Amino acid sequence: MVTSEAAPFAKTGGLADVLGALPQALVQRGHEVMVVLPAYGNANLKGAERFYNELPVWMTGGYYQCALDRIERNGVRYVFVNCPPLFGRHGLYGDMWGDFGDNPVRFAVLSRAAIEIAQRVFLPDILHCHDWQASLAPVYLKTEYLGNPALRHIRSVLTIHNLGYQGQFNAGVLNDLGINIPAVFHINGLEYFGDVNLLKGGIEYSDYITTVSPKYALEIQTPEYGFGLDPLLRSKASILAGILNGVDYGEWSPEADGYLPANYSAKDLSGKRVCKKALLEEYGLDTSDLDRPLAGIVSRFAYQKGLDLVAECIQGIADLGMQMVVLGSGDAALERAFGGIARAKPDQFGYRGEYNNRLSHLIEAGSDMFLMPSRYEPCGLNQIYSLRYGTVPIVRATGGLDDTIQHETGFKFWGATSHELYGCIAHAKHIYENEKDWWETMMTAGMSKDFSWDASAADYSNLYQRLMATA
Ligand code: ADP
Ligand code: GLC
Which whole number is the average pLDDT over 221-246? Predict the structure, then answer.
């Protein structure tokens, strides 16, 4: 597998959770899995061991000398491409001044290094690439490495975790990527309206394409969700499928969660109240009425997540008398909006603009409901964590949110507007306060759902076998 993130080493979002858990689930099914990712300057690489000193990765006009470090975790070999001039920085994709200008080269080196590793260290049957950052790997495999008989059996899979990020750059970047430009820069290759689009390249050159939920696999074939690639994705419909992400219940279970002040289960929910109190205290909110509904949000602050809709109807939420705790950072305007909301009603609303894993666990446990009003959501993990923690999700019916939340386990709304969101929240609050039995049935129905990785790993495994049969 080739990826730009994997938990617990380097993470900005759900991609890392997937690469931290799916490989292990595949190992348990008998596969051998190596995950290749960059050795970022701020990655958590404790215990890494250097096992390969000089791996030259050719770009145009010269090569980047890389070393390889490895950490074995739960039977999975994580291999870190160590190239300080490209990766030895604080930040995965950028810093306070924005995205790194050399991202095309950085991730081209990652992608090409993966194929060099296939030649020299670990020869796989399947090259499974994730998102635009790894999308050049199938492109190199089918062009620059086409003449290499040792690699001819390899089948490539691209998983799209988020079509909103495509790695689109000025065509000039191709001059640096060590690739025969006329061979790839055309309408059936990397070219996209005169630019270079790396994800498009991955879609064109991979043998199979997956996304992270069945509903999203359909949505991305429509103009509304296709980000301009829907015609191409429709043309690939016969080699495109959605496989729902799982969650790692070893990390996310209220029975055993080490970040919580008290543990609990569907049989004994009393610990959840302890968590709620601790959460309110952590945010400095009013703790005098623990029966008052508390909504939680943990999210990247990006347009995708629809959090501006929450801000738009905040007066309505305030008038409902609910409390709300928010954890997230990203878009500066949204950070300011939620900062302002918390300052205006410090007993009722709280905001922390940081990345905080412990607090994200406490919010899942201590909240009564969890808000995910996403404009689009390829899978979404927090709503699945919420189910297990008895925290009833309120979600927009899109992508993986629609696939994982049913009326017995949560609340859904359809239009991406603040008034539909508000209506859904008001409805949930009414049930919470007036239909206690119904609410508790929803909680326990959610807690009993099983979204463990095994089923998804079985689907990936079947896909790999089918592709290998064509080799
Ligand atoms: P996405 O990958 O689009 O951000 P997901 O729901 O798939 O959405 O995954 C988000 C992951 O990132 C979850 O594990 C969530 O807990 C975590 N996360 C997001 N923001 C924060 C934050 N501010 N602090 C801690 N964890 C966060
Ligand atoms: C992306 C998506 C999210 C998904 C995650 C893992 O970041 O935005 O919906 O859960 O990838 O696949």
Answer: 98
Do 435 and 461 reside in the same domain of the chain?
Answer: no
pLDDT band at 256 (very low <50, low <70, confident <90, very high): very high
Q: Is residue 117 part of a domain?
A: yes
Residue 196 alpha carbon to ligand 1 centre in Å: 29
Q: Specify the DSSP class assigned to residue 10.
A: B
Would you say 57 and 109 are in contact if contact means Cβ atoms under 8 Å apart?
yes
What confidence tens digit (pLDDT) does each residue in 88-136 have?
Answer: 999 999 998 999 999 999 999 999 999 999 999 999 999 999 999 999 9
What does the alpha-carbon distance between residue 122 and residue 295 come to, in Å, rounded to a whole number? 47
CATH code for position 341: 3.40.50.2000
pTM score of the predicted model:
0.96
Structural domain count, the chain? 2
Q: Residue 375, SS3?
A: coil
| Cβ(355) – ligand 1 distance below 6 Å | yes
Pocket-testing residue among 166, 212, 402, ligand 2, by greatest number of atoms within 8 A of Cβ: 212
Substitution site in 162, 163, 245, 377 for ligand 2 pocket (most atoms within 8 Å of beta carbon):
162
Q: Which domain holds residue 368?
A: 270-450
Position 72: which residue type?
A: E
